[in-house]
Amino acid sequence: MIRVYTKQRHISKITKFLNSLNLEHEIYTIKDTPPIKSFDLGVSYCYPRKITDPLLSTPKKGFVNYHPAPLPMYRGPTELDDAIKNKEMQWGVTVHYMDENYDTGPIIQIKKFSC
After folding, report:
1. Range of the domain at 47
2. Is the dihedral of CA 94, 99, 100, 101 positive or negative?
3. CB atoms within 10 A of CB 62
4. ∠ at Cα 47 (74, 87), nearest 5°?
5. Residue pair 25/18 in contact by the 8 Å Cβ criterion
6. How far apart are CA 112 and CA 114, in angstroms?
């Protein structure tokens, strides 16, 4: 079971993607109060809140975060504003394992592209 934490506007595309792979899943937003029960993998997809214990340590395979910026340079929720201020000409997205700190877990992959 995959449990995804995201914004309301992303639910339909995430549902479509996970259904296409025939993966069992649950999707939650900040309006929900999900139960603290065992599941296999947690995914944070543009979720606007920090995920902490006990939820962070609940999934058997941990939590991964889709972060809409290249790490470790652009951590936190203001990454896009910071990139504009810095006049970045290259950008990227990062998928990383989550730990107790904000955007600091081991990086799985970064996809970079020109602006």
Report:
1. 2-114
2. negative
3. 16
4. 25
5. yes
6. 7
Q: pLDDT tens track of the chain, all 115 residues?
A: 999 999 999 999 999 999 999 999 999 999 999 988 999 999 999 898 999 999 999 999 999 999 999 999 998 888 889 999 999 999 999 999 999 998 999 999 999 999 8
Q: Which two tokens stand for residue 65?
A: 């975060």
Could you list the beta-strand ranges (E) of 29-104: 41-45, 63-67, 90-97
Total domains in the chain come to 1
Distance CA 102, CA 50 (A): 7
Q: State whether residue 40 is helix, strand or coil.
A: coil
Residue 83 CA to residue 69 CA, distance in Å, equals 9
Residue the block writes with tokens 């340079």: 73
* CATH number of the domain encompassing residue 66: 3.40.50.170
DSSP 61: T
Q: What is the DSSP letter of 16?
A: H
